[in-house]
């Protein structure tokens, strides 16, 4: 028998049904119970949206907790701390500047047709989400990478910072401790 998977309380049953955009009421019923966050939002900038939403959720529901929302906020703040501690740990991490307009243009000029399609798609998201995530006010993002060039996180025009979805893997060999806190622990 087929199962119906839902992120929130709502329509029960199978088959076709009338659906509407998810509103705040449904968002509050998302059950994470401390588990990993869903990553199926169809956007290359989904992580920025997840972190922005997590900050909003934590501000509404309290900073004490062990939900996926709390983990997203904690990891974003750890990324912020790494940016500020860069000089102390520059042997383990690096900061890379990403200028969207330059990158879109370079990918479009690439002889690889797949790169051009990727640039075109990325630019559509960047443009259509410009006002929602403040992309229209940004000339550059900064990405934080480990020595294996895995992304740890970056700056965000919507929430200041965000962590990569696989930040635990990317940061596992860093072993950076601030006071008694192990970053991304």
Structural overview:
The longest helix is centred in the middle third of the chain and has 17 residues, at 68-84. Among the domains are: 44-58 and 66-99 and 140-185, no CATH class; 101-134. The radius of gyration is 19 Å and the shape is flat. It has eight helices and six strands, in the order H-H-H-H-E-H-H-H-E-E-E-H-E-E. The strands form two sheets. A four-stranded antiparallel beta sheet has the order 1-2-3-4, with helices on both faces. A two-stranded antiparallel ribbon has the order 5-6. It is α+β, with helices and mostly antiparallel strands and 185 residues long. A hairpin with a 3-residue loop joins strand 3 and strand 4 (160-163). The chain starts with 23 loop residues before the first helix and ends with a strand.
Tags for this model:
185 residues; alpha+beta; 4-stranded antiparallel beta sheet; two-stranded antiparallel sheet; 8 helices; 6 strands; disordered N terminus
